[in-house]
Amino acid sequence: MSDTPAKMSRPRPLSPHLQIYRLPLAAITSITHRATGVALSVGAVVLVAWLYAAANSAECFAQFQSILVSPLGLFCMAGWSLALFYHLCAGVRHLVWDAGVGYKKETTNTTNILVIISALILTGAAWACALPKLPML
User: Fold this and answer.
1) d(C-alpha 84, C-alpha 122), whole Å
2) Are 93 and 115 in contact (CB under 8 A)?
3) Confidence of residue 131 (pLDDT cuts 50, 70, 90)
4) Which residues of 47-76 are buried (b: 16+ CB within 10 A; e: fewer)?
5) What are the extents of the domains in the chain?
6) Using CA atoms, how far apart are residues 11 and 47, in angstroms rounded to an integer?
């Protein structure tokens, strides 16, 4: 006798993985909320290093500033500010959820999109205000 039933001509499917299964927007925003928390921790270390450079000497501060206003530095600062605003907006949504509001699927989908759009708008507004004041520009 065979170990497999006669009707089983195909092997059993594997559990869904990311190449097959499409994550819902709620899962993506939840993962992104956690990732932005990690990015903010890294940004806090950079902030402390910047404050240390300011307290150390004028030369040290000028060197650190030149790194921050380089294209790579500006890219990292833009990413950090996007992480800050995204984490802020998602955190406000979590506070609303803690109050017991917004658990319906339609409301959750709407707030997911609202968090993403508001984070992008806040980041754009912050950089629109900051770019004219940067030392290199």
Assistant:
1) 10
2) yes
3) confident
4) eeeeeebeeeeeeebeebbeebeeeebbeb
5) 70-133
6) 54
